[in-house]
Amino acid sequence: xxxxxxxxxxxxxxxxxxxxxxxxxxxxxxxxxxxxxxxxxxxxxxxxxxxxxxxxxxxxxxxxxxxxxxxxxxxxxxxxxxxxxxxxxxxxxxxxxxxxxxxxxxxxxxxxxxxxxxxxxxxxxxxxxxxxxxxxxxxxxxxxxxxxxxxxxxxxxxxxxxxxxxxxxxxxxxxxxxxxxxxxxxxxxxxxxxxxxxxxxxxxxxxxxxxxxxxxxxxxxxxxxxxxxxxxxxxxxxxxxxxxxxxxxxxxxxxxxxxxxxxxxxxxxxxxxxxxxxxxxxxxxxxxxxxxxxxxxxxxxxxxxxxxxxxxxxxxxxxxxxxxxxxxxxxxxxxxxxxxxxxxxxxx
Length: 348
Fold this sequence. Notes:
Number of helices: 9
CATH topology of the largest domain: Aminopeptidase
Number of strands: 17
Helix content: 25-40%
Strand order of the largest sheet: 1-2-12-3-13-16-14-15
CATH architecture of the largest domain: 3-Layer(aba) Sandwich
Radius of gyration: 21 Å
Distance between the termini: 39 Å
Strand content: 25-35%
Low-confidence stretches: none
Mean pLDDT: 95
Order of helices and strands: HHEEEEEEEHEHEEEHEHEEHEHEEH
Number of domains: 2
């Protein structure tokens, strides 16, 4: 692969749920300080690295730092933890997973319990899984757990990021793989015609909160958001429901449930991809929102576009993306920014 896989591993394996992005924010700040002119952050924790251009025309590039996770809502007398979700985890994939509980005194390893299927009653077998019903087992007594864990402590999934054939797979590719893409583009760009604001946002998974606030604060002339998108190109789905397919290139978003991208912006993205011979596909996402919506109208009407990385098994610990699609996304974002002069008319 023609990108820094070790940085991608660091970004995806580091914990950071909505509102508690501290650890991932430190990494992003470190990388942006090395590749941009100056770095700022706000009261919510959004981080912005700015490369000053030849003009005052500003382009905001956004990718969210937060991953889905949990908060401890209750500790039983026996020392089991019950959870409140931070983002949209599918409870079906939580059983028998390893987790980390982030306490004030350090991290504790735990497992989400799953009892043997042959011991379940018929009623238990038919019961629909809910996040509120799972429990975390820390292997400690109730007294020890209550001494070390507090209500409100954060819980994240424990997983490594690895190469899998032509894919990379792990947790939190949503959306750290796009944070990585943004950082790679920031490394490559020199002396742009326009001022570029590389924004790592917070709390996207709980309602696009960070980008909405940042859109008002930055007030850019143009915004392009980066996120993963659905790739249901696996057994059990009709071709029309794939949304995107791994290995077919970066995805240029036309719509999702939160935004319809500006036609002039997505047409220019397509034109740049074709001029640079960068493989791409068009994304029409029937459900799910992204930071794109956060910038579209929070400080007046703004032209917005979005580039997505096709990803299988979203919101699990085995999210998977094709290395060629990652490279294509970096290439398209970089080429788009290097050719942005501030003179394109995106009004409709």
